[in-house]
């Protein structure tokens, strides 16, 4: 079985996320919602769709994580 690299991982607490929609939301948030640590994206070196200008957009429009990531499931 091959292991695939997660879409996003936290460098501080080692939490990982695998979905593209979570990666997009976390890119907007800019930090780990669990511990506030730095995030490492699997597509950081590539020209990812939607990645251009997201850091600038995130700094211009600071949003709470629940507004970006949506309502949590129960």
Q: Tell me roughly what share of residues is in helical segments.
A: 25-40%
Largest sheet: 3 strands, antiparallel
Number of strands: 3
Q: What strand order characterises the main sheet?
A: 2-1-3
Number of domains: 1
Low-confidence runs (pLDDT<50, min 5 residues)? none
What is the approximate shape?
A: globular
- Write down the overall mean pLDDT: 78
Helix/strand order, N-terminal first: EEHEHH
Strand content: 5-15%
What structural class do you assign from the helix and strand content?
alpha+beta
Alpha plus pi helix count: 3
Rg, alpha carbons:
12 Å
Report, as a whole number of angstroms, the end-to-end distance. Answer: 31 Å
Task: Write up what this structure looks like.
With 74 residues, the chain is of the alpha+beta class. It has one domain. The chain has 3 helices and 3 strands, in the order ββαβαα. A 3-stranded antiparallel beta sheet has the order 2-1-3, covered by helices on one side.
């Amino acid at each position: 079985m091959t292991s695939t690299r997660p879409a996003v991982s936290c460098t501080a607490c080692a939490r990982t996320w695998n979905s593209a929609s979570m990666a997009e939301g976390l890119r907007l948030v800019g930090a780990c919602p669990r511990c506030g640590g730095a995030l490492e994206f699997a597509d950081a070196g590539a020209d990812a769709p939607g990645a251009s200008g997201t850091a600038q957009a995130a700094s211009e429009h600071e949003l709470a994580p629940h507004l970006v990531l949506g309502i949590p499931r129960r």
